[in-house]
Amino acid sequence: MQKYEEIVTLARRLALNQNLASVRHKTGAPQTRPFQSTEITTSVVQFENVGVRYGTGPEVLSDITFELPDGSFHFVTGPSGAGKSSLLKLMYLALRPSRGLIKLFDRNAAEIEREELPGLRRQIGVVFQNFRLIDHLSTFDNVALPLRVAGAQEGLIQKHVGELLGWVGLADHLEARPPTLSGGQQQRVAIARAVIGRPRLLLADEPTGNVDDQIAVRLLYLFEELNRMGTTVVIATHNEFLVREFAHPQLHLEDGRLDTRPPAKQA
Ligand SMILES: Nc1ncnc2c1ncn2[C@@H]1O[C@H](COP(=O)(O)OP(=O)(O)OP(=O)(O)O)[C@@H](O)[C@H]1O
Ligand SMILES: [Mg+2]
Questions:
Q1: What is the pLDDT of residues 204-263, one digit of tens each?
Q2: Closest Cα to atom 30 of ligand 1
Q3: How far apart are CA 30 and CA 206, in angstroms?
């Protein structure tokens, strides 16, 4: 644990010096946004008495009710099999609830047409537990994809993708294809791809599961920076140290039930 404390101190210092300022300028968004300020009124995600079962099996999530205010940052915690990935899939509308109400960006998910899904999902950055990178594209092109889809200028793409991949420690692997990268490297490509477009909502499933402590802390700083720029962030994690050290509330799942917990530590 001692090692972790040192890393946090170091990373904090680093984050102060190199706070991804230029990525922030990309879309001309406000420089800062107060974290969980009182001006926040709208909710990005809302669940009311949601239940989920796979096939004819028992409910794996029951009576799930919560709300994610715009600009909030939450961890999703709980033991393996508790339903963390299922909860994220519900928010991404990749899984339909068996009962209850889900609202995404103030829209009732049950009323969203299939054709509308791609447009809605473009506002969500997602890091899947199994990465889902495009194997025949280079690291650089995987990360550039959301910007290219959005029609960004190639000059800006070169600058921002290069900078972000440097931040996550992949500057030497820009041309590598995902199958030639390690698990932890692939995970960082997936994270860079999820955050590069400054999504409205970021859903990350175990985003630090394959990297060492130092990189995990660095990635958390990246998520916090994104959050300061306005993105609502949800991170499923087993890493108790990160949950303790980074002061964000938890959506804690156990036996299919949700227990909302305040930050483990005060900011
Ligand atoms: N496609 C599926 N078909 C049937 N059951 C499933 C499916 N996906 C998940 N489950 C079940 O739902 C429950 C919750 O799974 P989920 O993957 O959401 O848990 P988790 O908290 O993400 O676990 P982990 O920490 O291991 O990633 C588990 O009991 C799992 O077996
Ligand atoms: Mg999971």
A1: 999 999 898 889 999 999 999 999 999 999 999 999 999 999 989 999 999 999 999 999
A2: 81
A3: 29
Which residues lie below 8 Å from residue 197, measured CB to CB, with a gap of 6+?
Answer: 122, 125, 146, 147, 150
Q: Which ligand 1 atom sits closest to the C-alpha of 86?
A: 18
Tokens of 254: 């156990």
Question: Per-residue pLDDT tens for 21-63?
Answer: 333 333 333 333 334 444 445 899 999 999 999 999 999 999 9
**Residue 146 φ then ψ, to 5°:** -60, -35
Higher pLDDT among residues 9 and 129, named by residue: 129
Contacts with 43 (C-beta within 8 Å, 6 or more apart), sequence order: 67, 68, 69, 70, 103, 106
User: Using alpha carbons only, what angle is made at residue 164 by residues 149 and 184, rounded to the nearest 5 degrees?
Assistant: 100
- Half-sphere CA count of 115, side-chain side, radius 13 A: 0
Identify the residue whose C-alpha is closest to ligand 1 atom 29: 81
CA separation for the pair 142, 168 (Å, rounded) = 14
The angle at the Cα of 208, spanning 95 to 246, to the nearest 5 degrees, equals 100
Q: Report the separation in Å between the CA atom of 62 and the middle of ligand 1, taken as the mean of its atom positions.
A: 14
Q: How far is CA 33 from CA 5, 13, 84, 97, in A?
A: 27, 20, 28, 33
Reported as a single tens digit per residue, the pLDDT across 50-107 is: 999 999 999 999 999 999 999 999 999 999 999 999 999 999 999 999 999 999 999 9
Locate 115 and state its tokens: 């054709």
Three-state DSSP at 99 gives strand
Which residue out of 50, 54, 131 has the highest number of ligand 1 atoms within 8 Å of its CB and is therefore the one to mutate? 54
Ligand 1 closest atom vs CA 89: 18
